[in-house]
Amino acid sequence: MVLLDTTRPFVMDFSDHFAQLSIMLPRQSLIDLLPNAEDMVGKRLSSASSKISADLMLSIARNAQKLNHEESSMLSQQAINLLANTYHVSNYQTAVNGGSQLRQIKFYIRENLNNADLNIRDIAAVHKISTRSLLRLFENESLSLAQYIMHSRLKHALELLRHPDCKMSILEIAYTCGFKNPSHFSRVFKQAFGSSPKDIRHSNR
Q1: 145-162 and 182-193 are packed helices; what angle lies between their axes, rounded to 10 degrees?
Q2: Mean pLDDT on 192-198
Q3: pLDDT (average), residues 111-117
């Protein structure tokens, strides 16, 4: 199972006969559940959970004509939820298996950007290390821990603003990315990207 972005060029090469099932998902529906979906593009999954996801989608596709609108909508949303969870598990296992505590922490931060109260003490507690050890992990990084959290929040906000099918208001995007104060969000966003959230939203409509 592979997640592809049809707005990007890609090539598929098969050395033998193959059968392919392509399922189009609403971009924003997936991003709402999997904020780092862009990072998952092109990543092949072959775990047990991915097989369950693939089997469900195949079953929905085979029986699509037998479903009424309500059943189709409900099962489609369940399929999207399952797909997002499959990539969540895969991404976390990659971090764990890679043995990098820093990668695990960065993954945790990206998955909790909607938490406006995300802080050093809580992150350290979740990963069972001291705050001093946590800060030390970022000493050789280009961004400090606080800077990485802010950078991740702003990057996610930029991604949402650039998607023409994102239905959230700028205020909702600010809250989704963990900003309590919309004015503060607009100010730091413009400092980071040189344009206001409103300008970015209008330029992608």
Answers
A1: 90
A2: 93
A3: 94
Under 8 Å CB-to-CB from 37, ≥6 apart: which residues?
Answer: 3, 30, 31, 87
The yes-or-no verdict on residue 91 having pLDDT over 70 is: no
Distance CA(175)–CA(194), nearest Å, equals 21
Structure tokens at 183: 């004015």
The CA distance from 71 to 75, in Å, is 6
Give 60: exposed, middle or buried? Use CB within 10 Å, 0-12, 13-18, 19+: middle
Contact 41, 3 (CB under 8 A): yes
Q: What is the pTM (predicted TM-score) of this model?
A: 0.57
Q: Which residue has the tokens 């997936």?
A: 30
CB 193 within 8 A of CB 158: yes
Dist CA 81 CA 98 (whole Å):
26
The pLDDT tens digits for 124-178 are 999 988 999 899 888 888 889 999 999 999 999 999 998 878 889 999 999 999 9
185 contact partners, CB below 8 Å, separation of at least 6: 157, 174, 177, 179, 197
